[in-house]
């Protein structure tokens, strides 16, 4: 121990915690104000966090023209039909100070003739001034047809089928292999278990480029390049993240339960099936959803393995190719990206509770 | 406790099977059977490819003509020193690292601190929505942000216009493309934020009470209590960020359409690797690039694990 010198700066008497320092304001009121400020700040942040989604949605329902008219909502100059003709609507400032939306019947250099679309019977209204300086009246005009066009142009059903198939087989493979491996690591006296487990964890750090070229060459030799197999088969051999996550979860299940089952004559396989798995479905959902996200996002491997087979590519590659081709059609790009994010986001909201629990479990032990 | 604590805990447990009873052996056989998918996969997809890839670095291997493989000694290694694209790639990757690593450390802490603030109402609502963007497929996120960052029609520059600031042409500027890439990546914070939040929730409340009694304000409490106690999670986030950045490919590839534009600023290491190995089919040299990356990753990881004992809090090691 070091010798302690008396610290003169520290007050020796304790101050009561709840002394209100702000004069005249009760603690409760102050807490209320802090809550308001903090929550307001969080709302502001959330607004900026999500505003690109609004951009995406609003751009996806506009025409190119509507993107350039300076309005946030998709709007077009409004027109009305009058005696079989389409007339443009303008915001017209009237001499009495009102601004009325009138349809232009006859434009003129210094005065134009308008008509009130709500009351055409009232007759023509003559307006003095330069009509070119008038603001056209806009009406909201969503281009839902963009989605139809994007859906067919990008061949969305095909991309969805490919992604879903790759993801589904991958999920089956990951779940089967990772559950078995995690069960082995969490329950059995395997020789050199700790070393093996460390090697497993260390593979997280290994950049995949190191194994990629020979793996590609082997898959090419097997004739698997241009098929889904390279994107599915490796997942049947477990991976570090999911094994770790499942093992952590299995370790929290009391051993007494499987020992009791074993004494009753259940085989280890039976214990896994009837004791461990029924208690583990939150973590199983977490693994399934995280693999789904992985498959939805994986870009590099589909790119190299499916370059020659555009019919088989998943959403990630398909949309990017569409992006390269249709760079000049922002509305279609935003519509396809909306289509692409819909399913993962919906699944997230459905499985959110278990998924976030599972993610927490994989990273941090409580 | 995070996944990497396994490395530290290793010495505690004995490795040798000390009981050699028939039941133990029986169970060990079952255990080996259960972990066999990983052991087989480790040989097939990790160990054997690693050895082959190391051997390939001494050859001119090309997958379209595997028969024409020749042993070329250290040619590929010499080429590393005369590769202008590699220099550009290292420079681009290095610059981005310098910007992305601080963001990867600070962003989750700031967001988690906000979500952990006692005064915040609707914590669950905020946590879910801030996490949700992690689910947005990367390709969608890139398309959205490409639009947001468009110099004329994008909302970012139009927002800056309100304040009289004329924004840059983000994705076509060799300087601004890096902050733009950072922006595109912000949505992926989900897991790191959640881990940090859980870590913060685990800090004993007595510590804060004691600090309050001593007159420490909010910021001081965060800096002197929360931050030191969540260093294991910061460490974990840091390692994952480094690994993720070493693999950084999809975003710059799509943003630049695989060209590395503007002016090689987005010619990241893995884009160079992809072009070498798969577009130009130069797999021997590609394998060499992969091993160089692996060597760097190893050095960085070992350095980080070594440095951990100086700055990462470990409850078991206080003496």
Our Rg estimate of chain B from Cα atoms comes to 24 Å
C-alpha geometry of chain A = elongated
Report mean pLDDT of chain B, rounded to a whole number: 88
End-to-end Cα distance of chain B: 19 Å
| Assembly of the depicted chains | heterodimer
Q: SSE order of chain A, as H and E?
A: HHEEEEEEEEHHHHHHHHHHHH
Distance N terminus to C terminus of chain A?
33 Å
The fraction of residues assigned to DSSP E strands of chain A is 5-15%
Counting H and I runs of at least 4 residues, what is the number of helices of chain B? Answer: 15
Given helix and strand content, the structural type of chain A is alpha+beta
- Record field, number of beta strands of chain B: 0
Number of helices of chain A: 14
Helix content of chain A: 55-70%
State mean pLDDT of chain A (0 to 100 scale). 84
Describe this structure in words.
The complex is a heterodimer of chains A (366) and B (319). Chain A has 366 residues and is α+β, with helices and mostly antiparallel strands. Chain A contains 14 helices and eight strands. Chain A has helices at residues 27-60, 64-68, 145-153, 156-187, 193-202, 209-221, 229-232, 240-252, 255-263, 268-276, 281-297, 300-305, 315-325, 330-363, and strands at 75-77, 79-82, 85-93, 99-106, 111-115, 124-128, 135-136, 138-140. In chain A, the strands form two sheets. In chain A, strands 2, 3, 4, 5, 6 and 7 form a six-stranded antiparallel β-sheet that branches. A two-stranded antiparallel sheet of chain A has the order 1-8. The longest helix of chain A has 34 residues, at 27-60. Chain A is elongated and about 100 Å long. With 319 residues, chain B is an all-alpha fold. Chain B has 15 helices and no strands. In chain B, helix 3 (75-81) packs across helix 15, helix 4 (84-116) packs across helix 14 (269-279) and helix 5 (123-132) packs antiparallel against helix 9 (190-201). The longest helix of chain B has 35 residues, at 22-56. The two termini of chain B are 19 Å apart. Residues 11-15 of chain B have low confidence and may be disordered. Chains A and B meet through helix 1, helix 4, helix 5, helix 6 and helix 8 of A and helix 2, helix 5, helix 6, helix 9 and helix 10 of B.
């Amino acid at each position: 121990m070091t010798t302690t010198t008396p610290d003169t700066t520290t007050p020796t008497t304790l101050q009561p915690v709840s002394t209100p320092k702000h004069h005249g304001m009760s603690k409760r009121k102050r807490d209320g104000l802090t809550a308001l400020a903090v929550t307001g700040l969080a709302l502001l942040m959330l607004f900026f966090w999500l505003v690109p989604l609004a951009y995406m949605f609003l751009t996806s329902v506009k025409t190119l023209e509507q993107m350039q008219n300076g309005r946030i909502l998709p709007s077009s100059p409004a027109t009305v039909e009058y005696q079989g003709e389409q007339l443009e609507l303008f915001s017209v400032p009237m001499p009495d100070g009102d601004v009325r939306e009138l349809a232009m019947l006859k434009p003129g250099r210094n005065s134009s003739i308008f008509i009130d679309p709500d009351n055409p019977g009232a007759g023509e209204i003559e307006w003095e001034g330069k009509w070119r300086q008038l603001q056209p009246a806009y009406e909201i005009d969503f281009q839902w047809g963009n989605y139809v066009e994007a859906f067919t142009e990008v061949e969305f059903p095909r991309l969805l089928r490919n992604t879903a198939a790759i993801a589904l087989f991958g999920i089956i493979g990951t779940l089967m292999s990772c559950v078995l491996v995690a069960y082995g690591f969490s329950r059995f006296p395997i020789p050199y278990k700790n070393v093996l487990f460390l090697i497993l964890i260390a593979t997280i750090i290994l950049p995949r480029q190191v194994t990629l070229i020979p793996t590609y060459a082997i898959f090419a030799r097997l004739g698997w390049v241009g098929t889904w197999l390279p994107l599915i088969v490796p997942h049947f051999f477990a991976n570090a993240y999911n094994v770790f996550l499942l093992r952590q979860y299995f370790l929290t299940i009391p051993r007494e339960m499987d020992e009791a089952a074993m004494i009753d004559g259940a085989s280890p396989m039976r214990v896994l099936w009837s004791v461990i798995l029924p208690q583990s479905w939150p973590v199983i959902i977490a693994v399934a959803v995280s693999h789904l996200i992985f498959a939805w996002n994986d870009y590099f491997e589909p790119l190299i393995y499916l370059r020659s087979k555009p019919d088989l590519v998943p959403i990630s590659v398909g949309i990017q190719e569409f992006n390269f081709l249709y760079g000049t059609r922002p509305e279609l790009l935003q519509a396809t990206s909306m289509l692409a994010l819909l399913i993962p986001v919906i699944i997230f909201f459905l499985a959110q509770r278990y998924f976030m629990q599972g993610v927490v479990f994989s990273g941090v032990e409580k | 406790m995070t996944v990497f604590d396994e490395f530290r805990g290793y010495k505690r447990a004995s490795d040798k099977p000390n009981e050699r009873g028939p039941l133990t052996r029986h169970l060990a056989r079952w255990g080996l059977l259960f972990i066999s998918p990983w052991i087989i996969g480790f040989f097939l997809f990790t160990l054997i490819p690693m050895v082959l890839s190391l051997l390939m670095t001494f050859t001119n291997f090309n997958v379209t003509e595997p028969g024409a493989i020749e042993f070329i000694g250290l040619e590929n290694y010499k080429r590393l020193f005369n590769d202008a694209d590699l220099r550009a790639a290292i420079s681009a990757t290095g610059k981005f690292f310098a910007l992305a690593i601080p963001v990867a450390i600070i962003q989750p802490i700031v967001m988690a601190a906000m979500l952990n603030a006692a005064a915040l109402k609707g914590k669950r609502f905020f946590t879910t929505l801030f996490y949700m963007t992690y689910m947005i497929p990367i390709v969608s996120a890139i398309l959205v942000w490409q639009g947001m960052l468009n110099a004329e029609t994008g909302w970012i520059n139009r927002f800056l216009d309100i304040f009289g600031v004329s924004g840059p042409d983000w994705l076509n500027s060799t300087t601004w493309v890096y902050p733009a890439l950072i922006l595109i990546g912000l949505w992926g914070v989900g897991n790191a934020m959640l881990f940090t939040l859980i870590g913060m929730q685990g800090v004993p409340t007595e510590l804060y009470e004691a600090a309050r009694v001593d007159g420490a304000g909010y910021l001081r409490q965060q800096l002197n209590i929360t931050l030191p106690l969540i260093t294991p999670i910061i460490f974990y986030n840091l390692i994952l960020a480094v690994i993720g950045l070493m693999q950084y490919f999809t975003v710059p590839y799509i943003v630049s359409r695989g060209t590395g534009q503007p002016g090689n600023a987005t010619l990241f290491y893995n884009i160079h690797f992809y072009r070498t190995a798969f577009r130009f089919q130069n797999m021997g040299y590609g394998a060499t690039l992969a091993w160089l990356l692996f060597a760097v990753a190893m050095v960085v990881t070992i350095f980080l694990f070594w440095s951990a004992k100086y700055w990462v809090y470990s409850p078991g090691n206080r003496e």
